[in-house]
Protein 1
Amino acid sequence: MKLHLPIYHLSGLSRNNCRLLEKLGINTILDLLLYFPRDYIKYRRVKISGLQIGDSATIIGKIKKHEIISPPKNPRLTIQTLIVKDKTGSIACKRFFNHPYYQSQQWRNEQISMYVNGSIVAVSGAVKADRYYGRILSSPEIRLIDIDEARDTKNSIIPIYPLTKGVSNELVQDAVSSALQLLELLIDPLPQDLRRKHGLMELQEAIAFIHQPPGESQLEAARRRLVFDEFFYLQLSFLLRRHQLLASEAVTNIAPVGPLLEQFYSQLPFSLTSAQRRVIDNILNDMTSKTPMNRLVQGDVGSGKTIVAVVAVLAAIQSGYQAALMAPTEVLAQQHYRKIATWFEPLGVSVQLLTGSTKTVKRREIHAQLETGELSVLVGTHALLQEKVNFHQLGLVVIDEQHRFGVQQRQHLLNKGNRPHVLTMTATPIPRTLALTLHGDLDVSQIDELPPGRQKIHTKVINQGAPAYDFIRHQVIQGHQAYIILPLVEESHKLDLRAAVVEYERLLTEIFPEFKVDLLHGRMTSAEKDEALNSFRDNKTQILVSTTVVEVGVDVPNATVILIDHADRFGLAQLHQLRGRVGRGSHRSYCLLLNTSKTAEAKARLEVLEKSTDGFFISEMDLRLRGPGVVMGYRQSGISEFALANILDDEELLNLARSMALAIVKSNPNLEQHPLMVAELKRWGLTSWNCALN
Ligand code: ADP
Ligand code: MG
């Protein structure tokens, strides 16, 4: 189809401009049509005499004068001035350019021939004070229009595109305009009756209006349609996939009861919360049904997800299968391994740990035992994905902190078994809308209750270190322990790491010379990490200075205070996770957030943590403040593709998209009647998993 042709087939686009557009990832005509504005500026039309400094407005008038100069003092700068006049007065419209391109004679000639005296223009911009002219329209949008348009224009909405160096908004606007000429070649995959029924605008029209909205209501309707599409195809792909999964028989037959589970329950030192019991029921139900389980367990930090996973593991093992548990960091994998090993030893279930730093001899032994089936449970990091890791009969895959892994990695581990059951867990609870968007193909269970007796963690935002150090000293003297977290965001960054080590030495020698202070970071060898954690766990170390490697999993109940340095650099969800390192025992616990930012926003953001301990609320605030892309990372497919949708505010459209996708999959699971939707799924890159559609 013509829309898939490269943009240089468009008339009126120079080679140079095509190359500039390619910098934005725009290669084909279709890319251009789907390159949506990131924002709009809305201008009210006013008479020139009515312009006030500080206004944003559109004026319409005739060009009286046009000049382009470079001031001798600053020859790299190009200043374009148009004097525009209407019946009530005149105003200077000034634009400033400092890219070499605007020095070229070619550009000047183009401009001079475009904006000739007497032409009618619509100019939209901000009114600013000017030493020479009194007031000017500063860096405005200028559009040539005809008399009819001049009469009809009341307000104007100017699209603002995402840009990069050397690419101007005007260039994109012009290119889009010429691509829009070919819009009629685009066919809407959504049948008309469905569109009508749900008040969705036709696709061609929506694309035209998103770029060139004649008014607010058309823009809103266009956005509604396009946001719908963003949700719809993602949900469609999830539901198709789920449909296939349900159609496939589970080969893994699990018995819900057995001696192993009974023995395990009887040796548990506490009783399960009702939320844990409910989720375990969900899981055992899934595992004993005819189709493979694909379930996500969400539970706030400390809600006790590990036990729930362990029950699933035992269920698989007592039915003769093996289980794998993958965690995103070595520290967390080790922690799981240690816990699981102590629980499983009396039950006679074999467990091993496999990480990047497992020694060769050990690794070979594990590989061999896995293949014979001698080894029942393998806990580890990404190392589990290695080619040499082969199971005799893998029946269950558990992935902890699953949002840290990509879809591919998850799939890779699943492929090591024959349609094994899958249990994923996350401690970053997310709102339902986002859960549907990210994991629309999963069943979701919530552990929405903490084990009894948990302390509220007293949280305070502070702006000086010294009182915090005194507070820590006081806690340690009482026999407790403390974490101090340093803002090493990127573990691999050498400079960051050095700064962390310097700070550690300061704490060690200057602040806390009387205590044993230890350092933990991601670049230490596994033996070193082990030693640091063990000695902290055994209270041989009182203060553990650490990077975010302790963010998840580390469980030392005697630790009662956590000080987070440069807390303003972390996301709220992450701070909430870090805070969960304390308050794990029966002692009153504290979280001190050292704010080094002076902005009111940073303070307000951190204060959310003072007020709330509700992981869902906090993560929603985090999503609102920083955006889902940043919070969730870009690893999950789908979410980063959204140009227009706002996961938190477009819930109604998400629900509509999901229910329509559901209806379509029900009646037409291979999309035979919707070949255009198949093409659209391919365009969104959502079909790789689905052989039936290829
Ligand atoms: P998370 O959900 O953050 O992974 P964990 O599974 O690590 O939480 O559990 C946190 C702590 O709570 C562990 O020490 C665990 O043994 C304990 N725990 C789990 N369930 C219960 C319960 N029902 N009653 C008391 N303690 C529990
Ligand atoms: Mg956990």
Protein 2
Amino acid sequence: MIEFPGLNILWAALPEARVVGGAVRDSLAGKPLADVDLASPLNPDEAMARLTAARIKSIPTGLAHGTVTALVEGQHFEITTLRRDVETDGRHAVVAFTDNWQEDASRRDFTINAMSMDRAGTLYDYFGGEADLHAGVVRFVGDAKTRIAEDYLRILRFFRFFARYTIGAPDAAAVAAIEDLRDGVLLLSTERVWSEIKRILVAQSPIAALHLMQTTGVLERVLPQGYDVPRLTTLITRRAPVDVYLRAAALLTGDIKSIAARLKLSNDEAEILQSWQTPTALQPTASDADLRRALADSDAPTLIARSWMNGNWPDLRARLAATPRPVFPLQGRDLTELGIPQGPRIGKILAAVRRWWLDGGCVASHEDCRAQALLTIVK
Ligand code: ATP
Ligand code: MG
């Protein structure tokens, strides 16, 4: 039986609906459920009418694909009408509605993703998904080559689920099909590629998946600028926290600006990667003054992220987290008060005093810095 807040209320309105896909898989695997998707033989209008009659708010989020979103107890549930593929071209599919559960299951990608479960807790497992889940096998529903040619994103989805569920060797048919059709990933939109790479990276242990991506030739196609799997392996071996950008910073090599442009990273993402890849000179032997100097330029989370690239240094991290960020106590207006006219000279003096303040370990007071500014002016 699948338990999730609000689900029983939804089932009271749509008793013929079943939970499908990831929620069935993850509940069988004993993993926590992030969200719950359902399918139903009702067409979207009927489903919405039923929800409205039960006073459940619904939003037509994807009517063309048969999806409505129901809002129950603050939870969002996607309810999709059963579908079958009419036409596929490797990137898009034309679908038609059906009332046949097995037809809907057979267009799903992997056996572990093709199960459904009804209100009474009955599992519908048309392709041996439960056995594959427990054996740690990610296997395509149907012929791997055909399924990949329908939608090349499935190559990357394979690695996403491989990274999460595989125990032991990968499915040989899947690997052979991926090797054959690997150029298909070049047709995918970069947003989808980057989003899949991120999901692979946050799996508990993505290394085996990345090795397989390398040997099948997929990794060089999705990251032509370069990658460093050993560096990521080292980071994970150090037991760094599971953080997508920490892992991406370790994996990606090459100029971040051109990677960002190619993979269409957001500005925030590109900035974080660039910053976290910046080598740090901070070692565990750093003095308190060294720490303050580093913190004057970068905040503690940034310095901690950078330190993970070099080692697992719990003491250094604790000290960084506990040290207040020093703030340079002099501003331009302090200098105008001392009679320096507005202009580039102010910046130069400030920079010189700041260097002096840093050299002294960031402890000089406002008064000390003012005095130092006066000295600088006199010189
Ligand atoms: P996650 O926990 O990563 O969200 P998920 O199984 O929910 O896992 P989604 O990408 O959210 O994965 O997709 C939901 C379900 O829809 C999948 O379990 C699968 O049944 C089906 N699905 C999604 N994308 C595809 C695809 N490209 N080809 C075939 N089936 C797909
Ligand atoms: Mg999902």
